[in-house]
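Below is a filled-in request sheet from our internal design queue. Each sheet records the structural input a requester submitted and the sequence that came back. We keep these sheets so that new team members can see what a complete request looks like end to end.

REQUESTER: design group, bay 2
PRIORITY: normal
MODE: inverse folding
CHAIN LENGTH: 372
BACKBONE (tokenized):
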């Protein structure tokens, strides 16, 4: 239950409570700032879409000070959807689960799977060093990499979706969606070891080749591993193909194991407001949809270099806000950023809060950009 302190109204869902705040804000005369306080009972609130408070969309919000709090216990916000055991089918040493398409005919994009509230890792192979130089003279290069034969043999298939190749180069990393194995294209390293060409998604590879390879040569400054493919699955890992909507999971199903998948990349959005308080709340269950659909080319501070800024995915996302206070909150098991704030910002306070197992940045305040 959610209580709107100023009006005495009570709501069973957060979207109705939000609409009540918007009605309240529209009636504000703007001469004096008014408080709008939503008090949540303890418990878990599952979100089907982001909760948005935007003064750019609803100018009345610029006349109020907004507070979201829980007075007793903790109010937990998540977008996790529980996957019922009956939906899983045994296939070899792992289980599969197929999502249904949405109203637009698409399968969900997700990068995270939860078992009893904990994110589990995507499956991956062993780390290996790349042994060939990529040309930097502007000559045409096929999109892809020559991978050791034993690594390719693990995949056992020519068509590689949803497999990916992750390249780490010091503090930066790149995720290349793979297309297929081309077994007739081979190279041998200086020790006579056989490598087979694996093609990668062209747009991601071309950006890397044109913009980054001059100082991020994989041979001299990086290591690689294959990931996100059923043949790499081990106990306690999983993979997902958003082209077919199929999860593969190696672990327990049924009693004692609740499997869930997050559906949103943002839980809360605040924009253009002055005076926001989040107190005694918990946030979990968000996922990185961008990497599923685009691969990833990272820079410092988790900037996506093709965008030249951070991907706008976070449990709490804010733009052009001031007087924003996060007090006694917990952010945990997140596949994106926890607290991400951009634009014109002033008087941001984060106090007495906990951040646990965050995939990207725990707190990012400001406007980091990439330099190419």
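RETURNED SEQUENCE:
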């Amino acid at each position: 239950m959610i209580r709107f302190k100023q009006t005495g109204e009570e709501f069973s869902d957060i979207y109705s409570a939000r609409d009540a705040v918007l009605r309240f804000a529209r009636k504000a005369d703007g001469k004096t700032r008014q408080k709008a306080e939503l008090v949540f009972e303890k418990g878990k609130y599952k979100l089907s879409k982001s909760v948005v408070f935007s003064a750019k969309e609803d100018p009345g919000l610029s006349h109020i000070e907004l507070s979201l709090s829980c007075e007793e216990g903790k109010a937990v916000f998540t977008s996790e959807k529980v996957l019922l055991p009956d939906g899983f089918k045994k296939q070899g040493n792992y289980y599969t689960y197929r999502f249904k398409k949405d109203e637009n005919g698409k399968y969900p994009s997700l990068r995270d799977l939860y078992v009893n509230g904990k994110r589990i890792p995507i499956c991956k192979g062993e780390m290996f060093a790349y042994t060939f130089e990529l040309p930097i003279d502007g000559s045409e290069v096929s999109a892809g990499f020559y991978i050791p034969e034993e690594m390719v043999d693990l995949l056992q298939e020519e068509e590689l979706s949803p497999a990916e190749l992750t390249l780490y180069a010091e503090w930066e990393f790149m995720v290349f969606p793979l297309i297929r194995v081309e077994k007739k294209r081979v190279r041998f390293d200086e020790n006579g070891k056989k490598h087979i060409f694996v093609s990668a998604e062209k747009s991601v590879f071309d950006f890397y080749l044109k913009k980054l390879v001059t100082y991020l040569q994989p041979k001299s400054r990086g290591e690689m591993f294959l990931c996100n493919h059923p043949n790499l699955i081990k106990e306690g890992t999983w993979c997902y193909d958003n082209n077919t909507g199929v999860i593969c999971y190696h672990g327990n199903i049924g009693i004692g194991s609740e499997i869930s998948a997050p559906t949103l990349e943002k839980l809360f959005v605040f924009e253009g407001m002055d005076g926001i308080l989040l107190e005694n709340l918990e946030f979990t269950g968000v996922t990185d949809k961008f990497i599923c659909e685009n691969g990833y080319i990272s820079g410092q501070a988790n900037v996506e270099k093709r965008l030249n800024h951070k991907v706008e995915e976070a449990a709490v996302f804010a733009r052009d806000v001031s007087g924003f206070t996060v007090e006694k909150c917990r952010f945990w098991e997140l596949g994106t950023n926890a607290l991400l704030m951009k634009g014109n910002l002033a008087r941001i306070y984060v106090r007495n809060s906990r951040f646990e197992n965050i995939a990207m940045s725990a707190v990012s305040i400001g406007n980091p950009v990439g330099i190419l």
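SHEET NOTES:
- The mean pLDDT is 91.
- The chain is about 10% helix and 45% strand.
FILED BY: M.R.
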